[in-house]
Design goal:
Its EC number is 2.7.1.148. It catalyses: 4-CDP-2-C-methyl-D-erythritol + ATP = 4-CDP-2-C-methyl-D-erythritol 2-phosphate + ADP + H(+). About 25% of the residues lie in helices and about 30% in strands. Helix 1 packs parallel to helix 2. It has a single domain, classed as Ribosomal Protein S5, domain 2. The strands form two sheets. Strands 1, 2, 3, 4, 5, 6 and 7 form a seven-stranded mixed β-sheet that branches. Strands 9-10-8-11 form a four-stranded antiparallel β-sheet, with helices on one face. With about 280 residues, the chain is of the alpha+beta class. Bound molecules: cytidine-5'-monophosphate. Cytidine-5'-monophosphate (C5P) binds next to strand 3 and helix 4. The site of cytidine-5'-monophosphate (C5P) has 11 residues, from strand 3 and helix 4.
Amino acid sequence: MSLADGAWIEPAPAKLNLALHVTGRRADGYHLLDSLVAFAAVGDEVALTPGPLALQIDGPFAAGLGTDEDNLCLRAARMVGGQARIRLTKNLPVASGIGGGSADAAAVLRALKRMGLELPPAPERLGADVPVCLASRPARMEGVGEIVTPLPPLPRLHLVLVNPGIAVATPRVFAALARKDNPPLPPVPRFARASDLTAWLAQTRNDLEAPAIALAPQVREVLDALQAQGAGFARMSGSGATCFGIFATAGAAAEAAAALGRPGWWAVASELAPDPAAR
Ligand code: C5P
């Protein structure tokens, strides 16, 4: 968070579900989740200036989003009575399993809090990922997203995020999920090294990966391509279609990102986001 030229600037880091187990289904149709969530340094950004509520979007993925009143940034601001001109810089592909709208809405709420407003009592009503995105630090996420348990910082990770240029509709992925009562995550230890984390991840799943691949086979292609580029571990995030790979070094990640920047694909090398307290 910084204040520049009278604007409150807040990063909206990409959310990564390093593991995501679907453990049940509520009567209202929402699914119960158990997820290890981390945040990448790459992300969108919001800048708020006091004034009548308005939204303007720029950045490489601006075209994928409307500025109408349904936009999550505006809904977030209205939820707390926020008056601000919001500029959203959309660096992340839209509807791609890495937070997107929820990360942007959470960033707006964080900026409005800095401007003196309270956070809303049930931010998950904006989107299941909003509570964890408000924290924007490693966490275990349970319930339908409203139960967030912060975790100690994770070891340094050399990540590559890849999206094959297709949007996958979250409700369709959940609907295509065969088993909705999978076991929860194993206990989450403190990870000293990246190799401890990848060994733990190998015992976990993203339960939404198989149904997402059934709807969008390009997800399988991305996972195979990450592995072919040398990722020690590769998995889809959220309901897709963005996947992440974990590489041994920053150089290997940069090379893989360059090789995976195929026509129509979005590929970036990134580290984890710095702890919000250290920003
Ligand atoms: O809350 P969000 O907008 O991210 O959710 C999009 C859709 O994904 C919901 O309308 C619902 O169909 C599905 N969903 C779910 N269980 C969750 C989160 C999302 O079934 N925990």
